[in-house]
Design brief:
The chain is an alpha/beta fold. It is built from twelve helices and 17 strands. Helix content is 41%, strand content 22%. The strands form three sheets. The protein has an eight-stranded mixed sheet with strand order 8-5-4-3-2-1-16-17. The chain is globular.
Length: 357
Amino acid sequence: MEKLRKKLKNISKNDIFKSFFIIFVSVITLFIFINRNQIQFYHNQFGSVTGSPLQVYFLDVGQASSTLVIFPDDKTMLIDTGSDDSKESLVEDLNLILAENNLSKIDLMILTHPDADHVGGTASVLNAFQVDNVLRPKVLAEGEPSIRDYLVSTTYTYQKAVSAISNEPNCTVKFVENNSWESGGAAVRIFAGDHETYSDTNSYSPFITVTFNQKTFLFTGDAPFLREEEFLNTLKEENLSLSVDFLQVAHHGSKNSTTEEFLQALDVKLAFISANSSTHPSGELLMRLENEQISYLCTKESGMIGVGVDESFVLCTLNESLDLPFIIVVLFCVSFCILKFCFSSQQKKMIYFARFG
């Protein structure tokens, strides 16, 4: 009987300790190798967006802007690259989205204008992915050869972006001009500014439309009132009727963009705002959207926003977050309790057979 007690004691101490150690190592391994972003991505049902022919992602890059478009023919277009502060999360999100679509490169990168919150992640994107084509604003970086009377930006961030672009292998670089093309049945058009030079950098922002299955997206960079007026005049001159289902609100929801006349003329259905500061989006802008009865989503509250277009459309946000550390701790405790119960049952069986064998 004394031998049996020692054997039971060894089971209690040694085996449970070994199992505890295995669970502990497994938990640590999960923390190291688990792709938290991927779990959040599927938890928020972004699989319904990746399953759509046309995909648009308004990326969460803080008080900055970056948007990824994936066309039905798997061509990709990245509009702006956020800020230097958001470059790591931008690359991580791009990696995830591209991998979910079995893609690995950016076919076209468009930089709308040279401000740091729109070009800050350019070098990081170029380092992480092959970029085949770049459209850059007609603004020169300091030190570049003079071209006509182009504006020169003296910011280090833009200089770094331009340098990275010029060093990208197998990449075609052009200035933004009026242009249009099709990609997998989606129609794309770029409306560049009426003038080659402007007094402020925001006015260089082109208007970009993407239309697929009678759904139209409009991307606006940081275009101010002046550019909105130019854009509406261009539509009128060309006798174009444009109804916008999804508007990327200009300049992070600034009060100096997106007039009520602009919203009315385009019959906007849903607005998206990339912002994350105490002053953006502005109260004036939100009031205009409310007056026009336009619903909106902002990355400040919603996180990354994804829109998938097929016969209809699906919309997902990344605002609902899973508390992975808490879940792992709970699983750890439950597993340990189950093991403890199993070993207790084993001890009872051994005592039973020892007595009644």
